[in-house]
Amino acid sequence: MAEANKFFGAKEENLYTHLQDLEELCKTFHHEGVPRDLYRWLLFPFPLGGKAKEWHKAPSREAKGKWSELVGNFHLHYFPLPKVQKWRREVVNLLQEDEESLAEAWTRFQTLLKQGPDLGIDENMCAQTFYMAINKESRMHLDGSAGGSFLRLTTKVGIELLGKIAENEALHKHWEEYQEPNWQCPEAMKKEESPAEQILMSESRSMITSKQFEEIKAVRPTSVDLTTAPIGAVFEPISAVTTTGEPTILTTPPSGKEYIKIEATILDNQLKD
Prior knowledge:
The protein is an all-alpha fold. The protein is 55% helix and 3% strand. Strands 1-2 form a two-stranded antiparallel sheet. Helix 3 packs across helix 4 (67-78), helix 10 packs across helix 12 and helix 11 (210-219) packs across helix 12. The radius of gyration is 28 Å and the shape is elongated.
C-alpha cells in the first residue's frame, strides 16, 4: 500500500489524501498498550519519495518522536496558508457545472471538503452553501424530494436526503451498464405478443391477480419471499419455464425483454390450463 501511494510533494499532490491513506494503513495494526501515534510515526516515512523523503529528515529529528509536531510541520510545508485560502474559496464559491447532475454536484462538493484542513464550516452551513451553488432545476428537484422545501428540513435530514439521492443515481447508472443496448419499449413489441405478454405489457406485474401470482410462484420457487423482499432484491438462481414448457434454472438474472418472455410463458401455460 505504501508503495502504491507514494507522496513526492509535487504541487498537484494533496497531503490530506495522503494522510488519509496513511491513517487507513495504521488501522490495520493493533497491539495492546501501543499508542496509535507510534504507528503513525513509524510508518509515515515509508510512503514518502523524492523531495518529500529528503524533507522528512530534519523535521523528524526536531520533533523527537512527537507525531503531532511532525505532522504539523508537514501541513505547514505542503499545505501553507495561501493554499488553504485558495481551497476555502473553492468550497464557498462552488457552482454546479453544466451537464452535472444534482448527485454528481453533491459528490464533488463532499470530495472537495475532504481535500484540506477543517475550515470551521459546520454541516448546516455546508447544506446552505450547496443549495445556493446548484442551478434552478436542481433546486426544484431537491425541494420536491424534500416535500416542498429543502431549507425547511433539519440539517441531519437534509444531508441524509442528499446522500440517498447520490446513492440512487449511482444505482441507476449501474443498472444502465447492464441494460440491453437494443431494448425497445413494450409498445414496439405488441405485434409479437401472446395473450400472457399482453397482460404483462399492459399492466404492472404488481397488478397480476393473487391466483396468477401464486401459480407463478409455484413454478418459480425461490428462497426469497417475493411478497416481502425489497424492490431492489436480486433473486438468483431464477426458476422459470422455457418456451417448450419445460422447467429450467437461470443462473444469471434475465434482461428486461427476457424477463417478460419468461413470465409470459408461465402465464400462457396457466391460461391454457
